[in-house]
Amino acid sequence: MADFLPYGRQSVTEEDIEAVVEVLRGDWLTTGPAVTRFEADLAGHTGGTPAVAVTSGTAALHVAYAAAGVGPGDEVVAGPLTFVATASTAALHGATVTFADVEPDTGNLDPAAARAAMTRRTRVLAAVDYAGHPAELDRLRAIAHGADALLLEDAAHSIGGSWQGRPVGSLADLTTFSFFPTKNLTTAEGGAVVTPDEGLLARARRFRNHGLVRDRAEQRFPDEGGWHQEVHEFGLNYRLPDVLCALGSSQLRRIPSFKRRRAEIHARYDAGLADVPAVRTPVTRDGADPAWHLYPLRVLDGRRGKLFDHLRGVGIGVQVNYIPAYWHPVFADLGYRRGMCPNAERYYAEQLSLPLFPDLTDADVDRVIDEVRTFLGT
């Protein structure tokens, strides 16, 4: 059997390693100059929107909801075709999560469903850029602001992409990124929150550092001493260390080449599977310039599970992304029921992520295509 082919993996070069080693030989391991540099470098890919580096994509969501002031009595409207963290981090703040259905072709939050789900208690509308294809952020922003809510873009899949000519990270009130190894760039573990709003930015920075207030002008007891710091609102330690930020800055220099290679692989899958009647290949909406994180093939006629087993059996590491978030028992125990979002459930029943990462060769892609076609009899 050929070597096992993962569905995603990091791309680390000697330059990345040298960047990390340089920090290890210096004076700072955490909360030092590499953090500031990484945040500035990241803003170069978000239209200049300031960034707050944190320890994971999940932490980024938790921080973003905290910055938005989400708490008990509030609602967060979100699409369910996502990793559970998009919803669970809002629930951890005490909010009620209302799931709105997705578009049947992209898997992204449907603006009409989002509008119907909004109430006077909605504080945040959370849209996921599924697979790296940006959501309809202009329409969703208008819906959110029309209800006096904030738009949060969960861009864990889409750094480097754009919608209607504007880069991901510049369109929402709050945008969150993930830098997990399978994502479009990695810091090993890591994430970030970006926002153009100075108040939201300050709240995000404070929450990721225990809620500490060090500015004497803002302290309630500023005369305590030069060592004094206070907590006015609870926060957590979500600080991303310098060693990982150094890796992130190095990786950011290759975002254009990562995006280009992912697009080439995506197009090769499209061409190799376009004439297979038993599958449906991904769509790209007008105005979208995706930064493809996944290749979400749709397998029709109830054959997804058997194709998954076949490909795994021949050493091809396909994945399914994702079960609808409200199917998780933690949400079922809160009263959420299957059938709430039929488009998302239908998408999940057919979805299969084929391998997609920059170091994938054309021969690897062709191997996957051949195995899919062989199994489906084409």
Descriptive account of the structure:
The chain is of the alpha/beta class. The chain folds into 2 domains: 14-252, 3-Layer(aba) Sandwich (Aspartate Aminotransferase, domain 2); 255-376, Alpha-Beta Complex (Aspartate Aminotransferase, domain 1), CATH 3.90.1150. Helices cover 36% and strands 14% of the residues. Helix 9 packs parallel to helix 13.
List key phrases describing it.
single chain, about 375 residues, alpha/beta, Aspartate Aminotransferase, domain 1, seven-stranded mixed β-sheet, 13 helices, about 35% helix, globular, PyrdxlP-dep_Trfase_small, antibiotic biosynthesis, pyridoxal phosphate, PyrdxlP-dep_Trfase_major, DegT/StrS_aminotransferase
Write the layout of secondary structure elements.
Blueprint: H1 14-24, H2 33-43, E1 51-54, H3 57-67, E2 75-78, H4 85-92, E3 96-99, H5 111-117, E4 122-128, H6 137-146, E5 150-154, E6 162-163, E7 166-167, E8 174-178, E9 191-194, H7 198-207, E10 212-213, E11 230-231, H8 242-252, H9 255-273, E12 279-280, E13 288-289, E14 295-299, H10 304-313, H11 329-332, H12 342-350, E15 351-354, H13 362-376
Parallel strand pairs: 2-3, 2-4, 4-5, 5-8
Antiparallel strand pairs: 1-9, 6-7, 6-13, 8-9, 10-11, 12-14, 14-15
Helix pairs in contact: 1-8, 2-8, 3-4, 3-7, 9-13
